[in-house]
Design a protein that fits this description.
- With 306 residues, the chain is an alpha/beta fold.
- It is 33% helix and 25% strand.
- The protein has 9 helices and 13 strands.
- Strands 3, 6, 7, 8, 9, 10 and 11 form a 7-stranded mixed beta sheet that branches. A 4-stranded antiparallel beta sheet has the order 2-1-4-5, with helices on one face.
- A hairpin with a 5-residue loop joins strand 9 and strand 10.
Length: 306
């Protein structure tokens, strides 16, 4: 049995004439221990898809399952890492993580919970900062706290909603490597969404494009059979990486191109004819009654994005 299964799911927002269909005919299978990345354009419905899996929203049609059971609400078996850290500013690193641990493992002793918190702080290399407040941390450190807090809940699935998009390029690269290392050591199932094809191929076992077909749907999965651990200094020169990157980008661009359509627009042109200065002298031009006018309309076919 697959860990995560989505069957023919669709989701939209709004009512009647103002309703927008976001996702349609979504089918997704994720096995235990897989590292899956879903990549697509901004605004194509990636967060809506991750929210279907987390239980924050319900599909209008179809179903989302975890271990064969329908997902109806959020739960500790699905840990969600947001792009904005979501840390409580008045709590330290240790206290932010402990808040989740205390809620999930209420039957543990305080010593067990404290040791568990310390383990995950060390995992994300933040032991020296354990007693600092979020405002005392860099953006990358805050996101490490968010990852540690989620992992400390021992979820069956780690859901990551563009977790590194707010970071600078160097910090983002460092965290990509660190999260990949954590996954290799823990093998927690990961579903990560991003709009960066390079990031997707660098961290994933399987990449699935979210096609911007309005409403969006998933494309064919791509198996990333690059050897781990992956060295970003050499991977850009790997012919296999180049081929996968080209295939993914081409798939997304082709789908984007298919969303364009033609429409007929009625363009009203200014009803002024240009003056023919070759037939008038300066005195005639100054004494003219006004510019010549002609009402003219033209229809033109233009290509617009659907």
């Amino acid at each position: 049995m697959s860990l995560i299964q989505i069957n023919n799911a669709s989701k939209g927002f709004g009512h009647n004439g103002s309703r927008t269909e976001v996702l349609k005919d979504i089918n997704l299978t994720v096995e235990e221990g897989e590292f899956v990345v879903i990549v697509g354009y901004s605004g194509s419905g990636k967060s809506t898809l991750i929210n279907l899996i987390s239980g924050l929203v319900k599909p209008d049609a179809g179903e989302a399952l975890i271990e064969g059971k329908k997902i109806t609400e959020p739960g500790p078996d699905r840990g969600l890492v947001f792009q904005n850290y979501s840390l409580l500013p008045w709590l330290t690193v240790e206290e932010n993580i402990a808040l989740a641990v205390d809620e999930v493992f209420k039957e543990w002793t305080s010593e067990q919970r404290k040791a568990h918190v310390a383990k995950y702080i060390a995992m994300v290399k933040l032991t020296p900062a354990a007693h600092k407040l979020p405002k005392e941390l860099s953006g990358g450190m805050r996101q490490r706290v968010s990852v540690a807090r989620t992992l400390a809940m021992n979820p069956k699935v780690l859901l990551m909603d563009e977790p590194l998009s707010a970071l600078d390029a160097l910090t983002r690269a460092q965290l990509q490597d660190e999260i990949s290392d954590i996954w290799m050591n823990n093998k927690t199932t990961v579903i990560w969404i991003t709009n960066d094809p390079d990031e997707a191929i660098l961290v994933a076992d399987k990449v699935i494009p979210l096609l911007p077909t309005a409403p969006a749907t998933l494309g064919e999965p791509m198996i990333i059979d690059l050897e781990r651990p992956r060295d970003r200094r050499t991977i850009n020169h790997d012919p296999k990486f180049k081929k996968l990157r080209t295939q993914l980008i081409t798939t997304l661009l082709d789908a984007k191109g298919r969303t364009k359509s033609k429409t007929s627009l009625k363009l009203t042109l200014p009803d002024i004819l240009p003056e023919d200065l070759t037939t008038v002298n300066s005195l005639q031009f100054l004494n003219r009654s006004g510019p010549k006018r002609r009402t003219a309309e033209k229809r033109e076919e233009v290509e617009v994005a659907a």
